[in-house]
Structures are given as C-alpha cells and as structure tokens.
Design goal:
single chain, 711 residues, alpha/beta, Alpha-Beta Plaits, five-stranded mixed β-sheet, globular
C-alpha cells in the first residue's frame, strides 16, 4: 500500500470568526454528523465496525503512544507504521473500501472519488502482517476477540471491491443470499414501495426464504421500531411478500437526534430551527417525506454562517443507484470567496444561452431548458466536520429533482478541501516532460473554474419533459417538441411518478456527472467567466493557459479514470472515472486528431498530446456534440439511446487495458484528510486541530468519542 498523503483541513480562522451562538450550533451539528459514523461503516461491509473498534481500542490502550504499544507487543516499529497508515486510510474513508479522490470534484464534482488499488471502492488491504496485528491485538482480551472475528475478511483479497454481489464484489445494501438475483422480484419490491410512498434512500433490502419462495424485508433507517406488510396497488398473484422493518441504525440515529435537539437551541433563525425539526422527525420515523420538506427549507436558508448537510444523501455505492449513504457535513462560511461565487451566480442565466440546446432559440431557452434559471445559493465554506466515505471538494444538493426544479438548490465549495488540490498534480507523468512544470503550475486554476461551472451550470440546468400526473404534461403532447438529434418529435418522456434515477438506474449517476463535466468544460473559454476569476491575456496565468490546461486535463483524467475499471468483472467502480474515460474516448474519435495518446509499454510511459492551436476549433464542437446527446436523452427519458451511446464510449478495449496497466503502475498516493474537533469547556466552544500524520488522524477520531452515549 502506498503511504498516504495526509492533509490537514485547517478551519481555525473561519471558526474563530463565529459568534458564541454560532460556535455552539456548529459544535452540536458536528457532533450529530460524526454520530452517523457507524451507519456508514455498516453500509460498507460486515467487518467495518469491528475494524473501527479495534483501531480505537488499541489507541486507548496506549493513549496514543504507539511506540510503547509496539514495544509491549514485541512488534517492530516498521510493522506498527504500516498499521498506522492502514488505520488512517480506513478512518478517512470510514471503512475498509477506498473511494478514489480522483475528482471528488464530481459529485459536486465534485462530486465526487478515490485511488488505492485500482478500482473505485477498492478494498484497503493492510500491509502489516497478520501475525504482527495479532500480537498488537493480544494485549487486551477485547481486541483479541475482535481480531479473531475480523482476521479473515480484513486480510482476504476478495471481495476486492463494492458492487453487485459476486466472487469479487460485495454490497451491504442488499442482504441475504441471492439478494439481487431476480429482476422481477426487485421490480415487485420497487412497485410496492412506490405505491406505499416509501422512498429508497434510507433503506436497505434483505432477502430471505427459499429460492423458489423468497420474501423481502425493507430495512428502514429510524429510531422508532415496528414492521408491517406492504403490497402494490395492483398486486399480481405472483408478487413476492414484502415487509417494512423500521429501526435500522436505531442507536446511531437516536444519538444523532440527541445532538439535533441541542443544536436547535442555538440555531440562528426560525428557518434553521424548522429545518432541524423536520430532519429530526425523519430520523425518528424513517419518513423521507419529512426529510424532503427539510431540504426545501434548507434551500431557502441563504449563505448561513454555519452550513450543514445531514442525512442519507449520495447513492454512489448502491449497485442499483437508489439507496444512499449517510452523510454529515458542517462548514464555516468563507465570506471573501463566497462573494466571488455570488458574482458568477448573478450572470449564470446569461451563460445558459451559450449551451448547445439553447443556442438558436433567441430570447427563449427552448423546450429542453427551464425558462427561469434561478441563481442558486452559491457559497464557499471551510469544512469543520465531513462524515462521509469521501470528502468532496464541493456539493450540489438536494438530489431530489422536484425540489431542484420547483424550489431550488445550493452549490457549496469546501475551500480548505480545494486547497489540497493545489499541492497535487495527479497524472503528471502522462504529460509530456516539456510541459510538466507548466501543467503543474496551471492545473489548479483550471480545476477550480471547471468545478465551479460543473456545479452551478452542470447540475443546475436542464428540463425534464414529464407527464406530471395522469393526463397532465409540462409540454404539449399533441405538438411535442422536435428532438435536435433526429429532427423529429420526441417519442419518450417521464411518466407520472418516474424520476431520473429510477428510469436510468445504474447509468443515472455517471451520466449526470459526465453531463455536468461537459458543461463546465464547454463553457470554460467564455471571456466573461475567465475575467471574473482574474484571467485575461495580460494576467500571470493567462486565459489561454487556463483553457489549454483544462483540455489537457480532459485527456489525463480520462486515462486516470481507468484505475477505477475492474477488468476481472468488466465493471466500473466509480461513476466519475467512467465519465472521464467516456469523454476522452469521444474526443479521440470525434475531434479530428486533436488528441493523441502515445503508449510505450516497454518503458511504462503513457503521454497525452494535444494540439494547442486547435483546442477551441476542434475540441469545443466535439464537446458540444457529446453534451447535446446526453442532455436530450436525459430530458426525454430516452434510456435506451443513452445506454447504447454511453456503454460504447465507456467500453474498455485491449488498447485501453494496455493503458490501464501503465496508469496503475504509477498510481498516485492516496489522499487522507485530518479534521478538527470541537469541545465545550466552561460553556465556551474550543477548537482542536491535529498534526497531519497517521497518528494525528487516529487521535482525532479517538477524541470524537463515537461510542459515548452522553452529550
């Protein structure tokens, strides 16, 4: 395992600028966020909570003096160092599967993950020997018992990644033998949930019974416990029995609710109080109707001094793309950078007219774009707490399309997370040696603008053509709009109750991220945008430098995406990586020789070459063509056409497999983040930051007191 690069998420300056009330609010919200840790661990793997307990127990056994622990166990320091690196990786990822930070930018990007062993959500294997870890664990009866439970799954090379259950992959979202065996059964469960207004984000699914007579339990996250049978309204005689079992993650959510009740007492306004009360209610009952109401309220709380996100948010790790991982975030406002982002938001509506599906419609935005583009709340914050398997550079929420289109959404950039990118030049070895220094110097400038555009205009644009209820449409079905790809009337749209993720299933996340990435790349040459961020023909880093670097990054990131492809299963482990690779494949086919990939297998050398003088003449039209296709498929619910195009573009052939071998041989060091903690002393909230070392990361987690039941 490569030694991780550890980065401290410094937040002191922003935190100390808060009022006493805001500090208390941020403290209790941070405690609520970290209290969801065990929910995430349970969602990752059966052994993850035990591994966490082992790390914490060994820390407390030696009070952080790992050298003394090694001496007592008669384990050499090199072996102990390997364990500390493993522990830091495990804690930073909240589990023993590594999410690549490749561009956590893209699920905001950004939104978006992670390199470790090659595929997204790849298993983190300890380098410490089994015998050395046994010796460390043998110092306490409790840790010895834990070690005996986890020694096999912890060290086993398979399952090697997360995904559909199989010989090489596993999931904790679907429990029981053959849990995803029958598409017919899964459709029956989905129909029963839809007819009973049960949203899937905070659920897991467990299969039991025999292969011939299965039954299913929907495990719903809540403090309250009960169970009851549900059925689809028009239940066919062959439908499987489905039971809702409330109380999944009960203990953790009860503790989260305790801290939410404390936070309500220190909220800055009635909007925050009402938001927290709705979140609290949803955690108590499991009803995501309350949670959706909280998100509508959250969107209206503009640019708060303390920004928060709490709930079952991102569905990246669910093989079906609908069930979401718990996430808890607390950020402190970065007012100077937020002002610049607000300036961009103020001109965003004019930029919509530059997009391929809007151009040519005059003053109208056309049938595939909202006529009213409401600038989102766009802010920059410093992360105080980020309880998630991946620390995104930014986020775009909520993920519910009806709220986004009817109420609005927020874009948030985590400035202290973004700064970590300026110290990294991932994929530098794929740039020609003559350009490497310039690429490294300019990369962050391009990256930042690309991420910002991805967020505000990538995830913020588009109109879903829908039958909103039986017989009611948001377009004229008697005179449907013309599809710009075919010149003929559209033939598909969203039916009542259908959503983007439900229709496009496993494609939804990666296609959405790819479309958002394409929007950011397509608009990055707009002078109005570049000037806003200080890039002109006369600036130190010129506008042309930013544009060229972004197109070069497209090539580098496309190749780097191959790290997250598993040739054994022929599956992509990470949505953003697949998107980057698909974009590169399109450009290689469609930009008339703009890109060239030089592959030297003997010397393990892979180089992206780009004709600088033709970047905009050939590159931008090519991006436009791909973007238009994905956008129209998305707007019209044309899943079949989208799948045909996207699976072709993201197919990994023999040539790409040769590229992948070189990429993996030179993978980047994994990135680990070290967060601060807060605590109350004599009624005043104090902040404690830790050294950016493996020992510092472990200490920060130990002092979060995840197991404590008292406030």
């Amino acid at each position: 395992m490569a030694e991780p690069q550890i980065y401290q998420l410094t937040v002191g300056t922003a935190f100390h600028g808060l009022s006493s009330q805001e500090k208390l609010y941020s403290h209790y919200m941070a405690k609520a966020a970290w209290s969801g840790t065990r929910v995430i661990l349970r969602q990752v793997s059966p052994e993850a909570n035990d591994i966490f307990d082992l790390i914490m127990a060994l820390y407390h056994k030696c009070d952080g003096d790992w050298d003394a622990l090694a001496a007592e166990a008669q384990v050499n320091l090199n072996e102990t160092h390997k364990f500390l690196n493993y522990a830091a990786m495990f804690l930073s990822n909240i589990g023993n599967y590594f999410v690549s930070h490749m561009r956590a930018f893209f699920f905001f990007f950004f939104f978006f993950f992670f390199f470790f062993l090659g595929s997204g959500d790849q298993k983190i294997l300890p380098e410490i020997s089994r015998e050395s870890l046994r010796k460390l664990a043998s110092l306490l009866d409790s840790t010895s018992a834990i070690f005996n439970r986890i020694k096999e799954p912890m060290f086993a090379e398979t399952p090697s990644s997360l995904g559909f259950p199989g010989p090489f992959t596993q999931t904790a979202y679907y429990l029981g033998d053959e849990s995803l065996r029958s598409r017919e059964d899964l459709n029956a469960v989905s129909n029963a949930m839809e007819d009973n207004a049960i949203l899937p984000e905070n659920t897991r699914l467990r299969r039991s019974g025999t292969l011939e007579n299965p039954s299913y339990e929907i495990l719903q996250a809540s403090v309250e416990e009960d169970e009851h049978v549900i059925e689809a309204k028009d239940k066919p005689s062959s439908s499987v029995p489905v039971r809702v079992v409330r109380g999944d993650h009960k203990d953790e959510l009860e503790r989260v609710c305790q801290y939410l009740r404390e936070a309500v007492e220190h909220a800055s306004n009635d909007t925050q109080r009402l938001m927290l009360e709705k979140i609290h209610g949803s955690f108590l009952t499991g009803d995501l109707g309350d949670y959706k109401e909280s998100q509508k309220i959250w969107v209206t709380d503009k640019a708060p001094a303390v920004e928060t996100v709490l709930g079952f948010v991102e569905p990246y790790r669910d093989p079906l793309g609908v069930r979401a991982e718990f996430e808890g975030i607390v950020g402190i406002a970065d007012t100077a950078e937020t002002s610049r982002l607000h300036n961009l938001a103020s001109i965003a509506n004019s930029l919509v007219y530059r997009l391929p599906w809007v151009e040519g419609h005059g003053k109208s935005k056309g049938p595939f774009e909202k006529e009213m583009f409401e600038p989102p709340d766009f802010s920059s914050v410093q992360s105080l707490a980020y309880c998630s398997s991946l620390v995104f550079p930014g986020i775009n929420l909520p993920n519910y399309n009806d709220i986004r289109q009817e109420t609005g959404y927020k874009n948030i950039i985590f400035s202290n997370r973004m700064v970590s990118e300026s110290s990294r030049a991932r994929g530098l070895h794929m740039v020609d040696p003559s350009e490497q220094e310039i690429f490294k110097r300019h990369r962050f400038h391009s990256y930042y603008i690309w991420v910002v555009l991805h967020e505000i205009l990538g995830h913020g644009t588009g109109r879903f053509l829908s039958e909103t209820s039986q017989g009611n449409f948001n377009f004229d079905p008697q005179n449907p709009p013309l599809n710009p790809l075919t010149g003929k009337p559209i033939h598909s749209w969203y039916r009542p109750g259908q959503t983007w993720t439900g229709v496009f299933e496993d494609l939804s996340t990666t296609v959405d991220e790819c479309r958002a990435e394409l929007v950011g790349a397509y608009l990055i040459d707009e002078p109005q945008i570049l000037e806003l961020f200080g890039y002109t023909g006369q600036s130190d880093v010129t506008a042309d430098d930013v544009i060229y670097n972004m197109y070069l990054q497209l090539g580098v990131d496309g190749l780097r995406g191959l790290e997250n492809y598993d040739p054994t299963t022929n599956k992509w482990g990470q949505a953003h990586s697949r998107a980057h690779y698909a974009m590169l494949r399109h450009l290689l086919r469609d930009s008339d020789g703009l890109y060239t990939i030089h592959c030297d297998p003997e010397n393990k050398r892979l180089t992206v070459k780009l004709r600088r003088s033709e970047v905009l003449r050939k590159g931008k039209p090519s991006l436009s063509r791909m973007l238009l296709h994905l956008h129209i498929y998305r707007c019209t619910a044309d899943k079949d056409s989208c799948r045909k195009l996207y699976e072709d573009l993201s197919h990994v052939d023999e040539e790409a497999l040769a590229w992948r071998e070189i990429v993996i041989s030179k993978r980047d060091r994994p990135l680990v983040f070290c967060h601060a903690n807060t605590y109350v002393e004599d009624g005043e909230v104090k902040l404690k930051e830790y050294k950016p070392t493996a020992r510092g990361v472990i200490q920060s987690w130990a002092e979060r007191d995840i197991d404590s039941t008292s406030i």
